[in-house]
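Sample 3 of the quickstart, ligand MTE:
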Amino acid sequence: MGADETSRRTFLARTTMTAFLVSSPWFAHAFPRREGEQVLPFVDQPTAPPREGFNLLKWEELDSWITPNPKFFRVSHYNEPVIAETGWGVDVEGLVARPARYTLADLKARPRAEVTFTVECGGNHGLPWLIGAIGNARWGGTALAPILQAAGIRKDATEVVFVGADEGVETIRDMKLKQNFARSMSVEDAMSPANMLCYEMNAAPLPAPHGFPARLIAPGWYGVANVKWLKRIEVRNTRFMGRFMARDYVTIREEERDGQTVAVETSVGRARLKSAPARVSRKDGSYRIYGAAWGGAVDKVEVAIDGGTWRPATIDPTYSAPYAWRLWAIDWPNPTAGEHTITSRAIDQQGTMQASPTDPIIARKRTYWESFGWVTRKVRVA
Ligand SMILES: Nc1nc2c(c(=O)[nH]1)N[C@H]1C(S)=C(S)[C@@H](COP(=O)(O)O)O[C@H]1N2
Ligand SMILES: [Mo]
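Result:
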């Protein structure tokens, strides 16, 4: 399915929704704040980040489906290079019949692709300070697969490595090695028609901190796969084992094998079904909880207060795209004064539920990466 098809469907979905909206007054305003609403402070505020510059989402301020560029989180493990368009190009090389270099003008001259994709850091909700590493943008660029096809990937190739221009010094045993940020994908995953070389973010040129001149956008994957400041795309036939594939962004989970517990290490890859409460507000004594759900084909969201009965939230029908978060809201009648917990869980179109805290996939996880279990927030009602 091409990006044009996606936007056409979104458009159709919106048009057919109009009649429905008229009869359901509060849907239309599910996410924009209710005029004059008061936001209840979360009691469980995240702790201070270890350094500046992450620009993390403040959940209680989330009031639009698209995250404006200045409010979009940033995770940059090394430096944030500021690259001039002049002289820049991304090289496609390695096990290819026809190595090539694409300048920004070359990328822009190719057929345009667009995708609205919610990017979440694989560490989000895994550390006390890291709960806002998520944002939703309309990414513009050109499809990756035809570029790889044009290069002629050799039959023996197995992986495609995406290398950024940012670099740092890694200490490995007693060595210090200068490394670029890099991530790999299998040839098959790299060839996904959804992947794009992206040069636009919400109709603006890709901002420098987000990867100017171009980045990989890999819809459906955790943030780490979306390599910024691309400088090289390298096709190879051996496993790429760089820091962000094999040492960091590695999830360790205990599993049973023949009655023995083994620790299984996997690289953070595709995103998983997830949801989180965003904001609790009060207007004229009526309380409402807002939130988001992403990482899969979200069908339903349920909310429990203080670990009680799960009640269905209403998903805002106006905004939907295959790789984008859905926004939801639920009224909270007559909460008692004091502290309350609010937990949300998403259910996808196959009926699969967001993993619970007791699901071994979460309960037996030993690292903070891929914390896609239920998110609980704590709020105080005056
Ligand atoms: N070159 C490069 N690409 C990168 C990173 C990086 O440090 N260097 N960080 C990755 C991680 S871990 C995340 S979560 C996303 C964040 O994308 P953003 O900074 O545009 O929000 O970028 C990914 N791409
Ligand atoms: Mo990340």
